[in-house]
Design goal:
six-stranded antiparallel sheet, globular, 125 residues, 1 helix, Jelly Rolls, 6 strands, mainly beta
Length: 125
């Protein structure tokens, strides 16, 4: 193969390989059948993901964070702009968050070499 042709092919292969590695580790998201919550289970995971929950004003979410390793960040944001929770570098703990208004809420998780689990449950369902 001619060197002028080989170089672009080689660069393309490197780009494709790096793109495949963008998400490190694994994450599995299991949603409750009735839409009342979900479990995010991850291992050596470095990326971002999200789930949505429709909540009524006053609905209470129970969030349990189980961090075995790495860093975990979590935000809960309403599509209308409210942000009832935001936290970075979370350790293992459980807490409740109350929906300030009826809205669809986006629960975003970010991990850096994270192993653990985040469980979100609507206590009003």
């Amino acid at each position: 193969m001619h060197p002028i042709v080989f170089l672009p092919v080689f660069i393309t292969i490197l780009i494709v390989i790096n793109a495949c590695r963008a998400t490190k580790g694994s994450i599995m998201i299991l949603e409750e059948a009735n839409g009342s919550g979900f479990t995010m289970d991850f291992r050596e995971w470095s990326s971002k993901d999200k789930c949505r929950l429709s909540l009524k004003k006053g609905d209470e979410l129970r969030i349990e964070v189980i961090r075995e390793d790495g860093q975990i960040g979590l935000t809960i944001t309403g599509e209308n702009g409210s942000e009832p929770y935001a936290g970075n570098e979370l350790d293992s703990f459980a807490f409740n968050v109350t929906a300030p208004e009826t809205d669809t809420y986006v629960i975003r998780i970010a991990g850096k070499n994270a192993t653990g689990k985040v469980i979100v449950k609507n206590l009003n369902s």
